[in-house]
């Protein structure tokens, strides 16, 4: 079994209302972290953002609106094509304050990626070593 899945998708980043730039979304799934999908967005060979998304939420977002706070997902139509609308918000510690990015991805491409992850770890069969996870979190915060 291959414990890792990677797929590169071309997505559209909303640069202004009704204006889009094409960027690459490198979607990664690792069985060591079975609940998460990492999305790394690149343009012209540079990483512009990286987000960790909940795998189940990503799957739900293709079918219905989900999320609140920093991550919101919902299906939408682009002509005859189905898309996943991803709204990502975060604090910019500069003068701009809070920022929001809107990304549109092909829904069938996202579903295909998710199906590949299900062959690695089936939904409902995710397992996490809680003690190891807590040790890592505490090590990062300097607590023990």
Write structural notes for this entry.
By secondary structure, this protein is of the alpha+beta class. It contains three helices and eight strands. It has helices spanning 55-61, 107-120, 130-141, and strands spanning 4-16, 19-30, 36-43, 46-54, 66-68, 71-78, 81-92, 97-106. It is globular and about 45 Å long.
The total of helices stands at 3
Helix and strand pattern: EEEEHEEEEHH
- The share of residues in helices is 10-25%
CA radius of gyration is 16 Å
Distance between the ends? 35 Å
Low-confidence stretches: none
Strand content: over 45%
Form type? globular
Main sheet attributes: strand count, strand direction, barrel closure: 8 strands, antiparallel
Topology summary:
Layout: E1 4-16, E2 19-30, E3 36-43, E4 46-54, H1 55-61, E5 66-68, E6 71-78, E7 81-92, E8 97-106, H2 107-120, H3 130-141
Antiparallel strand pairs: 1-2, 1-8, 2-3, 3-4, 5-6, 6-7, 7-8
In brief:
This protein is α+β, with helices and mostly antiparallel strands and 144 residues long.
